[in-house]
Amino acid sequence: MTSIVPATLAGWTLQKIEETARASITENDLFDLKADLQTAEHERKTVAAFANSAGGFLVFGVTNDRRIEGVSNTELVRDFGIHLRDKMSPSVEFRFADRPHPLPNGRLVYVAHVPRSARAPHAVYVNGAWAFLKRSPAGSNDPMTYEEIHAAFTDANRRLRELAWLKAEVGRLRVLAENMHPNAPASEARPLSRITTRFDIGQLRAIRLSLFDDLSRQPVLISALDELEAHCTNINEALAPLTVFALVPRDRSFSGSRHDGRAFAVSEAEQITINARSILALLETLPT
After folding, report:
1. Of 127, 240, 241, 272, whose Cβ has the fewest other Cβ atoms within 10 Å?
2. Domain total for the chain?
3. Alpha-carbon distance 177 to 197, whole Å?
4. Distance between CA 105 and CA 174 in Å, rounded?
5. Phi, psi of 239 (to 5 degrees)
6. 194 and 273: one domain?
7. Can you point out the beta strands (E) in the chain?
8. How far apart are CA 82 and CA 40, in angstroms?
9. Confidence band (pLDDT; 50, 70, 90) for 286?
């Protein structure tokens, strides 16, 4: 029987763990079965290797001969974190399932997920020296080549530049939105600015596409960016019919419409300001 390795923590049910154990699937670059918590150095090597590769899952409580016996340590999550506290740079993110799987013998099976890291490459201190490791298809933690290390650092630097670009672009849209307020200094100096302002989101979309892998793990941030784009689009559509009347003060509402395009645009701009502030705050929480 062939068992497909689950792609989420929720997918690692006790039944799926039993199926994987019975199927005798060899440990690989996607998961690692452990009888119990191992030495700090060994855990650091495995976690760093997963983080430097495509990420993976650690299942505690399955013996080498594939018997599911569980572990007696009720503080395994805490102890696991302590193992990773030192001799790893930068630190690696990980997450355990909400609760361990209880067994009839009173012991527990724990499952942890180490995602592919946006902060890679991660170094671990092994045998008196720092090393960069990767997870192999054979389930071993192997040294990364010079080319792989260089590419990882290059990718990390690119990510930092693009995150800075994303912050700058969101900040630009926020300033445009703030200047649309009737009491904003720019609006007072240029009364027609609220009608002629356009929110170009082409750059924002390009950055989001380039950062797709990083942002895909941030659903709240994605939702906020989607809302920001929607409000920008709403303003552009609302003001487009008014542009031709920009120099005619007596007619700046939608042609044939009962709605005031200016008031609608100002309302949307207020939402952009709120969204932009929220996005910038979320971006500050991303690991760098």
Report:
1. 127
2. 2
3. 9
4. 58
5. -90, -15
6. yes
7. 31-34, 55-60, 88-89, 95-96, 101-102, 108-115, 123-126, 129-135, 141-143
8. 8
9. confident
Tokens of 274: 């709120």
Strand positions, DSSP E, 46-94 = 55-60, 88-89
Q: In which domain, by residue range, is 182 found?
A: 155-285
Query: Residues 45, 124: contact at Cβ < 8 Å?
Result: yes
- 163 and 127 in one domain? no
Evaluate whether 12 touches 37 at the Cβ level (below 8 Å): no
Q: With 50 as the cut, is the pLDDT of residue 56 above it?
A: yes
* Burial state string for 206-237 with b = 16 or more CB within 10 A and e = fewer than 16: ebbebbeebbeebeebeebbebbbebbebbbe
The two structure tokens encoding residue 131 = 């090393």
Mean pLDDT of 103-119: 94
Q: DSSP states of 131-171 as a string?
A: EEEEE-TTS-EEEPPHHHHHHHHHHHHHHHHHHHHHHHHHH
pLDDT at 215: 86
Question: Is residue 149, in this structure, part of any structural domain at all?
Answer: no
Lookup: tokens for 54: 């495509």
Q: Pairing mode, if any, of strands 55-60 and 108-115?
A: antiparallel
> Which residue, 144, 177, 201, sits at the end of a domain?
144
**Last residue of a domain, which of 104, 119, 144?**
144
pLDDT 10s digits, 190-232: 555 566 778 999 999 999 998 887 788 789 999 999 999 999 9
